[in-house]
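Handoff note, outgoing to incoming analyst
You'll be picking up this chain. Sequence as last confirmed:
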Amino acid sequence: MLSMLAETLRTSHGLKAKADIALAAARLGISGLSAVPVGDDCAAIPDGDGYLLFAIEGFMNEFVAGDPWFAGWCGVMVNISDIAAMGGRPIAVIDAIWADGEEQASPVLEGLRAASERFGVPLVGGHTNIRTDRGQLSVAILGRAKRLLTSFDAVPGERLIAAIDLRGAYREPFANWQAAIDAPGERLRADLELLPLIAESGLARAAKDISQGGIVGTAAMLAECSGVGIAIDVLAVPRPDGVELRRWLLSFPSYGYLLAVRPADIPAVTALFAARGIASADIGAITADRRVTITDGSATETIWDFARQSLLGFGPAGGKAEAAA
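Most recent structure output, in case you need it:
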């Protein structure tokens, strides 16, 4: 039933974790209205004829302990995805690793190196401490964009496009849908190049990479930052064969993006992804209603109502009235 699915999405750990961002932002005195708007996949700092992109990811201790090589790989991969989601290209990454001895640190470092080499993004420094009582990992990245895709520029009248690489499998027991580890580096780099191409061609202005909040949680973050609502048809979401809808909507794909696209530009955008063997589809509408809803064609459920409660605490105080041209 759709109501049970909606309750699962509303109470998911991934969505709750995103709400924690609001506490940190309030304590730091930063918001989507700061000099460099906060709430996006990266900080976008104006720099000459483009933007310098800066982002960081930290990883749950149990994830680092449970699959240390994959944690290292993800340290590079997810940061690169954040850069791409902003319409940018990565320049370099740095890492900070803590471990209880060299034996514990080695697989994390090997995963970092493997991803760095496969994606062609150099590791240029960081911090190392292998004399602590547990393993921890954080990785930061620097990139550059000529023209931005942001979380703040979706407008009513646009459509929500989901683009996801389905050529993979789950990295059990985690919710990570992994479509990169066995892929050649040339393919991975060319797939990521689609996002800056879309930005620079003016085919979209707003996008976000699908993170631990899942497809619906990521859509909620995009909606709040842009001051809009999003109505999602869950049956239209590209999904691998044999994967249950509930699990898929909570999954973290290695290559997955949401883009707000004008209706006239949908064929061009989806054709770009199709040419690379990446599934994409129109999964819903950007609306002026400050709610995120899901439908299966027969019923509709509200996942988040921004008129009642903020999520990240970013974005405009009111909704966006302007519509897509």
